[in-house]
Design brief:
The chain has 450 residues and is α/β, with parallel strands linked by helices. It is built from 18 helices and 13 strands. The chain has helices at residues 2-12, 19-30, 32-35, 39-43, 46-50, 99-115, 136-150, 169-183, 203-223, 239-250, 273-280, 289-294, 332-340, 356-364, 372-375, 378-392, 398-422, 429-447, and strands at residues 55-64, 70-81, 87-93, 122-127, 159-162, 231-234, 254-255, 257-259, 263-266, 299-302, 320-322, 345-347, 368-370. The strands form three sheets. The chain has a five-stranded mixed sheet with strand order 1-2-4-3-5. The protein has a five-stranded parallel sheet with strand order 7-6-11-12-13, with helices on both faces. A hairpin with a 5-residue loop joins strand 1 and strand 2. The radius of gyration is 21 Å and the shape is globular. The mean pLDDT is 96. The site of (2Z)-2-iminopentanedioic acid has 11 residues, from strand 3 and helix 16. NADPH dihydro-nicotinamide-adenine-dinucleotide phosphate binds next to helix 10.
Length: 450
């Protein structure tokens, strides 16, 4: 059954990128213990329907650069599944964006959003636009052109985009401004807005803080361990990485690494987060090589010097590893090294950063492994809190959002670990997450007919 679905998908998706198939294979294979437990799954063709997006919207984005030259990019929104609520998921602006990458991200989002227990469906969108090196006015012109094409398809009760790689509150602000100018509507059509007009406190921190809350709970429950005084490695230097590092440091962990698309920093004295922020926040995206010039004792390894099919970050000994940059950034070779160096937990902050072979090895060797759809769900959860505040015209204070986030991450951990136990795959949080998420989505799909 699973093989047949995967073969059909391969045929119908002329794919230049395998990430969509990778994500679907993982989910379908992990559903084995549940799929025959309810005859309605077959009767309603749930698996077959689940792997095909409701809609793939593609459009041309035309904008003027600072030299008044016309520039063209591809824009996309993949509305994958809205059984549980309005389509919800981020926008990614990065040259590597293709339909395939966005389909993988939108598919993962269905399950992540289901795990939160909140009423949100799964979607993703973005563009192959590269924000690096663009002026603020170029970013504005691009965001306006992007929204001019996207606005008919979104709405506070229809589809609510947010940020992802290359899209933070600055870009969401510009996108919102254009939506408002075109439609004359002032509602929660986007989340991750600046606090000044409708954003939620703590949305910028939510994904990273949530990752650490999940890790704290998992370590306490599974191993009676804490993060205090432990050496941790984090990859990435963007929104998720920065706030993962911040919360780890608040809990007394010693974070010794971070990275960007060109190289990695090892700082045995603990990452100086203010320096990283100066280089990376506000869309600056300066090179981390600068960090090693500014901070004595730190070492920068450019990407060209990474070991064969491995990454510099994962060569550093640590208690727990937090991949927070991008997909497939932690390979089998990296996993071998982490295990050799005594790493006992891997907590994904990015979406699908660990390759399937690496996950398998971690699980075989008893390393606690948390998939991103469970541990990075705090971002989208606080996005939903933002939708809720917008709809009721309320403003929650920081502590309220923080408490709700912490509680929600504990709930996700509990849901995932109990489900794994119930289906005979104890401590397999990948299968636990996929099964728990699937049950909720499948039930809604059945009850809504077809
Ligand atoms: P940002 O754009 O803020 O940061 C991305 C970071 O990853 C940057 O340091 C960037 O380097 C690096 N990076 C991007 N692409 C590559 C690549 N191909 N190879 C190596 N490094 C790369 O994005 P976020 O922090 O928001 O996103 C990071 C991950 O977390 C993504 O997988 C995203 O899908 C996921 N995520 C994000 C959420 C959010 O709320 N923002 C929520 C849940 C998951 P450089 O500085 O050189 O560009
Ligand atoms: O991958 C993700 O969960 C996000 N990029 C956040 C999505 C959201 O709607 O907040």
């Amino acid at each position: 059954m699973v093989e047949k679905i995967l073969a059909n998908l391969k045929k119908s998706n002329c794919m230049t990128d395998n990430t969509f198939l990778q994500a679907v294979s993982e989910v379908l294979n992990s559903l084995e213990p549940i799929i025959n437990s309810d005859s309605r799954y077959e009767q309603f063709a749930i698996l077959e329907r689940l792997v095909i997006p409701d809609r793939v919207i593609q459009f041309k984005v035309q904008w003027l650069d600072d030299q008044n030259r016309v520039q063209i990019n591809n824009g996309y929104r993949i509305q994958f599944n809205n059984s549980l609520g309005p389509y919800k998921g981020g926008l990614r602006f990065h040259p590597s964006v293709t339909t395939g990458v966005l389909k993988f991200l939108a598919f993962e989002q269905i399950f992540k959003n289901s795990l939160t227990g909140l009423p949100i469906g799964g979607a993703k969108g973005g563009s192959d636009f590269d924000p690096k090196g663009k002026s603020d006015f170029e970013i504005i012109r691009f965001c306006r052109a992007f929204m001019r094409e996207l606005y008919p398809y979104i709405g506070a009760r229809v589809d609510v985009p947010a940020g992802d790689i290359g899209v933070g509150s600055r870009e969401i602000g510009y996108l919102f401004g254009e939506y408002k100018r075109i439609t004359h509507q002032y509602d929660g059509v986007l989340s991750g807005k600046p606090y000044a007009f409708g954003g939620s406190l703590m949305r910028p921190q939510a994904t990273g803080y949530g990752v650490v809350y999940f890790a704290r709970e998992m370590l306490a429950q599974e191993l009676q361990e804490s993060l205090e005084g432990k050496v941790c490695t984090v990859s990435g230097a963007g929104n998720v990485a920065i706030h993962t590092i911040e919360k780890l440091q608040q809990l007394g962990a010693i974070v010794v690494t971070c990275s960007d698309s060109d190289g990695a920093i090892y700082d045995p004295n603990g990452i100086d987060l203010d320096r990283v922020r100066e280089l990376k926040e506000g869309g600056k995206r300066l090179s981390l090589a600068e960090y090693s010039h500014q901070v004595p004792g730190s070492i920068y390894t450019p990407k060209s010097e990474y070991p064969n099919e491995a990454h510099a970050i994962w060569q550093i000994p640590c208690f727990a590893a937090f991949p927070c940059a991008t997909q497939n950034e932690l390979t089998l070779n990296d996993a071998k090294k982490l295990i050799e160096n005594g790493c006992i937990a891997v907590v994904e902050g990015a979406n699908m950063p660990t390759t399937p072979e690496a996950i398998e090895l971690f699980q075989r060797e008893g390393v606690l492994f948390s998939p991103g759809k469970a541990s990075n769900a705090g971002g989208v959860a606080v996005s939903e809190f933002e939708m809720s505040q917008n709809a009721s015209m309320e403003k929650w204070d920081f502590d309220k959002v923080d408490r709700k986030l912490d509680e929600l991450m504990r709930q996700i951990y509990k849901r995932v670990s109990l489900t794994a136990k119930e289906y005979g795959v104890e401590r397999n949080f990948v299968n636990g997450a996929n099964i728990a998420a699937f049950k909720r989505v499948a039930e809604a799909m059945i009850l809504e007919g077809f």
